[in-house]
Amino acid sequence: MEAIKAKLVDGSGQNIGEIELPGDIYGVKPKLGILYEVVRWQRARWRAGTACTKTRGEVRGGGRKPWPQKHTGRARQGSIRAPQWVGGGVVHGPKPRSYEFKLNKKVRRLGLKMALSSRALAERLFVAEDFPVKEKPRTKELKNFLETLGMNEALIVVPERNLVLEKSADNLPKVKVLAVEGLNVYDILNHENLIVAKDALSKIEERLRR
Question: 22 CB contacts (<8 Å, ≥6 apart)?
Fold first, then answer.
């Protein structure tokens, strides 16, 4: 598979050339069906599944029959905690559960390759030799870096967690910083541009080829 080329930028956002990326990771033709399944699997795992309602047997009170069975002219009632009463139990309501389902590792890995390829093939993937923010969080400097690249929305991928860069992106609602370990299909597709630190490329390859 042919290598894919991406723009290489410096710490100020200036284009300083091109870099070749492996085609088996960044040149895979995206398939909507696989991307959809991986995103559905991700979001299902993120669901808390803690919603809980009480049945008529769990609601407090309602032990006494509200009125006699016969001769009142009203419909018979057995408990004031029956579902049709205000304050009564809920019929077929949600209970704590897990929404997670199994998805083969091979499919998950392929989905991540396709997501990366979708940005690379659309020329929306940039490789950064460095970032302007290093010692202290500087939102303005990161914003200027992105504006130089002609964007205000991006997913930034770094080799390992970078708290200074994350803090710099906190006040930029369309910018997110992720370590390679947390790189996922949903976040890639949720951002129009992808900026990968040059020293993170080898870690991405290692993750997708092991």
Answer: 1, 3, 4, 205
